[in-house]
Amino acid sequence: MDQYYPWFVLVHLLGLSLFLAGHGVAMFLSFRVRRARDRERAAELLMLSGQGSQVSLLGLLVLVLGGLAAAWVGGLLLAPWVVASYVVLVVVYVLMSAIASPYYYGLRNGLTGRRGAPPIEDGELLRRLDSRRPEALAVVGSIGLVVLLWLMVLKPG
Fold it and tell me: What is the pLDDT of residues 40-92, one digit of tens each?
């Protein structure tokens, strides 16, 4: 099984690349959408951001599977720093989803009037676009990234 270890690491890195690319697009657009002043532009940016998030989630899945396989082959699946990284990943994912999902789904639905609700008025759109959610997400994600890097570099425990 050790002969597969380089392949698992390669899959892990492929997942990381997909995750970073998709997440980078979604992050950039989450800040950019605040400058949109018309519905069509805001809807377009939100659609692109959603597509970036989908690529990011696919990358995260590949990243996690490759990382778990590499940890298993390396005999590190239950190492304290690896288990801690699982916990950090889940906590950051849950926090970021709790911050982002209601806001962005609400904004998308409000723009188009989906789910039986009428579209939001222009004044309400501008108020919603003036949110600080992107900064909150950046703080949570940055803290999670620093903790994950610390765990992977120093391997405590």
Answer: 999 999 999 999 999 999 999 999 998 898 889 889 999 999 999 999 999 99
DSSP string of the chain? Answer: -GGGHHHHHHHHHHHHHHHHHHHHHHHHHHHHGGG--SHHHHHHHHHHHHHHHHHHHHHHHHHHHHHHHHHHHTT-TT-HHHHHHHHHHHHHHHHHHHHHHHHHHHHHHHHHT-TTPPPPPHHHHHHHHT--HHHHHHHHHHHHHHHHHHHHHH---
- Degrees to nearest 5, angle at CA 37 with 142 and 49: 40
Phi, psi of 15 (to 5 degrees): -60, -40
Enter the pTM of the model: 0.88
In angstroms, rounded to a whole number, what is the distance separating the alpha carbons of residues 135 and 133?
5
